From TrEMBL:
One of its GO terms (biological process) is translation. Pfam families: Ribosomal_S15 (PF00312). The gene is rpsO. It comes from Portibacter lacus. Part of the 30S ribosomal subunit. Forms a bridge to the 50S subunit in the 70S ribosome, contacting the 23S rRNA. One of the primary rRNA binding proteins, it binds directly to 16S rRNA where it helps nucleate assembly of the platform of the 30S subunit by binding and bridging several RNA helices of the 16S rRNA. One of its GO terms (cellular component) is cytosolic small ribosomal subunit. This is Small ribosomal subunit protein uS15. Keywords: Ribonucleoprotein, Ribosomal protein, RNA-binding, rRNA-binding.
Length: 91
């Protein structure tokens, strides 16, 4: 696990978006976690422009988040709109 992502932060994200801190399988909680990780990796890449392994990890996370968001939108469009507004994801 990355240094910026502590166990407390992970539990806090899942408690806020997933309904319960132990509900790590919820799609909304996973999207929130991916969004947090994407923000941290983007910040890292601004400082370290030549870190290509980090860039690849960032692109992988963006793809995973996009697929999960597509699933949530298909399942419940209202929940999807609330989630992207709450997370500040433009789409």
């Amino acid at each position: 696990m990355a240094v910026y992502l502590t166990e407390e932060k992970k539990k806090e994200l899942f408690a806020e978006y997933g309904g319960d801190e132990n509900n790590t399988g919820s799609a909304e909680g996973q999207v929130a976690l991916f969004t947090y990780r994407i923000k941290m990796l983007a910040q890292h890449l601004e400082e370290n422009k030549k870190d290509h392994s980090c860039r690849r990890a960032l692109l992988t996370l963006v793809g995973k988040r996009r697929r999960l968001l597509k699933y949530i939108a298909k399942k419940d469009i209202v929940k999807y709109r609330e989630l992207i507004e709450k997370l500040g994801i433009r789409k």
